[in-house]
Design a protein that fits this description.
Distance between the termini of chain B: 42 Å
Distance between the termini of chain A: 33 Å
Number of helices of chain B: 12
Strand order of the largest sheet of chain B: 2-1-3-4-5-11
Strand order of the largest sheet of chain A: 1-2
CATH architecture of the largest domain in chain B: 3-Layer(aba) Sandwich
Family (chain B): Belongs to the bacterial solute-binding protein 2 family.
Subcellular location (chain B): Cell envelope
Largest sheet of chain A: 2 strands, antiparallel
Pfam family, one (chain B): Peripla_BP_4
Number of strands of chain A: 2
Shape of chain A: globular
CATH superfamily of the largest domain in chain B: Response regulator
Structural class of chain A: mainly alpha
Mean pLDDT of chain A: 88
Low-confidence stretches of chain B: 1-39
Largest sheet of chain B: 6 strands, parallel
Largest interface: A-B, 38 and 40 residues
Order of helices and strands of chain A: HHHHHHHHEHHHHHEHHH
Number of helices of chain A: 16
Keywords (chain B): Signal
CATH class of the largest domain in chain B: Alpha Beta
Oligomer: heterodimer
Low-confidence stretches of chain A: 1-18
Structural class of chain B: alpha/beta
Mean pLDDT of chain B: 88
Organism (chain B): Streptomyces graminofaciens
CATH topology of the largest domain in chain B: Rossmann fold
Helix content of chain A: over 70%
Radius of gyration of chain B: 21 Å
């Protein structure tokens, strides 16, 4: 009974590895297919947008708008991608954006103008990242708990600083950065910052020792330690990096909205995690893709844009958004496993 | 047509007269209480009376308007020598707020003022307080059962929409095929639906106006900017915008500024200081805002004090305070903004 079935099976199993391309090639190909499927989703959305609202959607200003709105969450997602790649999670990103934005826009710092606001936003972001990193890397607290605690306390502190009121920015140099006069060859400065952060993030993850260490820590922390990587220090740097990204994002949000409010960055943690996962970064760590994350963010922003242009109400938007997330991941998994 | 206009005029006229009468009532408080007719009806006034301890439980002040609510309650209570205010930490968590109110019941405060994070969810604890003999002044978000409170005071969300709609209607009444858009607040709140309903009902009086788009934001600056930027992109031409909330309006105004558009008029909602200042300056699209006055918290303290002292309300013939009081959502524009400036919240 067993004889007729098992031998041929064993035979084919032995044949496949020989005829298959080398492992690295499969990996590159798979990554490409993943990226292509994301581009496909994005292209499909663009077609939908173009069909439903040709005049409004296929318009330079709309492209500028979509990219601008992707910038803030995009910068946060780049930092998040590193953290998730290392097998961690950062639930505090939205709260850090809120805290950094209100701290930077309180009246005291507004006296120091542009530099004061930028500096404060970045320092607060890095500071929060440092606390997260120390708690996780050296305090031995799991990332989920440590960053959850940061989420709560940073939001609380943001509320305390503002007393619930909106901090309106009166520094013209900051406000001007969000105006159309400031566009560089039609590109808003916010989008430029997003592009630079993305480029640096991509280089850092794919072309440096830092990036390889991040992947190694996420793949197998014990093996990474045995291979001579200082896992703790690496983790500390990663949460610092995420905090830095939040600080930059907070500054971008100040430019965009002309104000700081304790409700800023609401649910960024979920959006950033979702974008990274859709992009193809493994939630369990060991694999990360900046390109994928950025495409994930762009898909989200484009969906929101199409919904608003077609005047769909928020209940419909939420249902459709959920469906599209599932669809995107299914499409991606299908294409990734069939190759 | 003329008939319609005059009826509308009457509507506004009545509102203006009643507002005027209210003001007069406030200013001539002292002399009124000396009137012969009022002698046998004790009405609350500023003179110190029986000591009253008021327990105040509000939601977390994570928004300009809610913060103003807490401030108004505190400062009004502070202005009375005979009032002690027991205030709990604000919370948006139903269970926590129930616990806080129970603590106030146990402390045996004389009167409770409650602005529930969720009116329906806090009905039971309101009933509990009433059964314990502590009268409850329900502020703004209404309890499910009239048995759970002695008096309700709050804003008029439907009226906000109605008055915003009428203001916009009057501004655009000579315009053919006028297009109006709406930037609503959080769609999962009942009050947002009421505001939209009022707005739509008002616009029905103006057949030349069509509402062409509506998007919901989240009462935050960030969401206001994002949604407004999309709306501006979606609607290349419109004549008026009603924005439900001045806090998210900061973001909406920012998006409008960034788009470089100024070919429409905007009406806000709530009554933030920044909105009042912009209306007074009159250099942008924001021409008016419909009030949802945070002073209702101060009024709630007044009513609670009157309840505690067993008095009625000055200027009314009743012996007792009313069981419900809905504030008027006045339209504040350049003409009357100075009068309201002091009530603007940050």
């Amino acid at each position: 009974m067993t004889q007729p079935v098992s031998p041929p099976r064993g035979g084919t199993d032995k044949v496949t590895p020989v005829s298959a391309p080398p492992a690295w090639r499969t990996l590159v190909f798979r990554a490409d297919v993943r990226t292509l499927s994301l581009l496909g989703v994005l292209a499909a959305l663009i077609v939908i947008g173009g069909i439903t609202k040709p005049d409004e959607f296929l318009d330079t200003r709309n492209l500028q708008l979509v990219l601008t709105q992707a910038s803030v969450i995009g910068v946060v997602t780049v930092g998040m991608t590193f953290v998730i790649t290392s097998g961690g999670i950062d639930l505090s990103v939205g709260a850090i954006v809120a805290l950094a934005s209100v701290w930077a826009t309180t009246v005291a710092t507004q006296e120091y103008g542009f530099a004061g606001i930028l500096f404060t936003a970045v320092i607060v972001g890095v500071g929060c990242g440092l606390v997260n990193g120390l708690l996780i890397a050296y305090g031995g607290i799991v990332p989920f708990i440590a960053t959850l605690a940061m989420l709560a306390s940073a939001r609380g502190l943001a509320l305390q600083i503002t007393d619930g009121s909106t901090q309106i920015v009166s520094v013209d140099t900051i406000l001007d950065l969000g105006e159309r006069d400031a566009y560089v060859l039609g590109v808003p400065p916010l989008v430029l910052v997003f592009a630079v952060v993305t480029a640096i993030g991509w280089l850092l993850l794919n072309r440096t020792t830092f990036g390889r260490r991040t992947v190694a820590v996420g793949g197998n922390a014990e093996a990474a330690r045995l291979a001579g990587i200082d896992v703790r220090r690496q983790r500390l740097y990663l949460y610092l990096l995420s905090g830095l990204c939040c600080g930059i994002a907070a500054f971008l949000l100040i430019v965009l909205s002309g104000s700081g409010q304790n409700t800023n960055g609401n649910l960024y943690e979920l959006d950033a995690i979702a974008a990274a996962i859709i992009g193809g970064t493994l939630l369990s760590g060991g694999r990360g893709t900046i390109t994928g994350s950025v495409l994930g963010v762009l898909i989200f922003t484009t969906i929101t844009n199409i919904f608003a242009l077609n005047n769909l109400q928020s209940d419909v938007q939420q249902i459709a958004k959920g469906a599209i997330i599932v669809a995107a991941v299914l499409v991606q998994r299908r294409t990734a496993t069939t190759t | 047509m003329a008939h319609l206009t005059s009826r509308r005029g009457l509507l506004f006229g009545t509102a203006a007269v009643s507002a005027g009468a209210l003001l007069a009532g406030c200013t001539s408080n002292e002399s009124d209480s000396d009137d012969a007719a009022a002698n046998d009806r004790p009405a609350a006034d500023d003179k110190p009376g029986k000591k009253v301890t008021i327990g105040f439980a509000g939601p977390q002040a994570d928004h300009g308007w809610l913060n103003a609510i807490n401030e108004n309650a505190k400062s009004r209570a502070g202005s009375y020598e005979d009032v002690t205010l027991e205030i709990t930490e604000g919370s948006n968590d139903t269970a926590q707020q129930i616990g806080q109110i129970e603590t106030l019941i146990n402390k045996k405060v004389d009167v409770l003022v409650v602005l529930p994070a969720d009116g329906k969810a806090l009905t039971q604890v309101g009933l509990k307080a009433m059964r314990a003999g502590i009268p409850v002044v329900n502020l703004d978000r209404i309890f499910n059962s009239p048995q759970a409170y002695r008096c309700w005071i709050g804003g008029d969300n439907y009226g906000m929409g109605l008055n915003a709609g009428h203001y916009i209607g009057e501004q655009l009444k000579d315009k053919k095929n006028a297009r109006v858009i709406e930037l609503a607040g959080l769609d999962n709140l009942e009050l947002t639906k009421q505001r939209t309903k009022g707005f739509d009902d008002a616009l029905k009086n103006y057949p030349n106006i069509e509402k062409v788009a509506r998007q919901a934001a989240e009462f935050t600056v960030e969401s206001g900017q994002a949604k407004m930027a999309q709306l501006l992109q979606a609607q290349s031409k419109f004549d008026a915008l009603w924005n439900h909330d001045d806090d998210q309006g900061v973001g909406a105004l920012r998006a409008i500024e960034q788009s470089g558009r100024d070919d429409f008029l905007m009406v806000g909602g709530a009554g933030a200081l920044s909105a009042f200042q912009a209306i007074k300056k009159d250099d942008g699209v924001l021409k008016a805002t419909v009030l949802y006055p945070p002073t209702m918290a101060a009024s709630a303290i007044d009513l609670a004090r009157a309840l505690g002292q067993g008095k009625g309300v000055s200027g009314l013939a009743e012996f007792e305070i009313p069981s419900s009081l809905t504030l008027y959502s006045a339209v504040v524009d350049k003409a009357n903004v100075d009068q309201y400036m002091s009530t603007g919240f940050k």
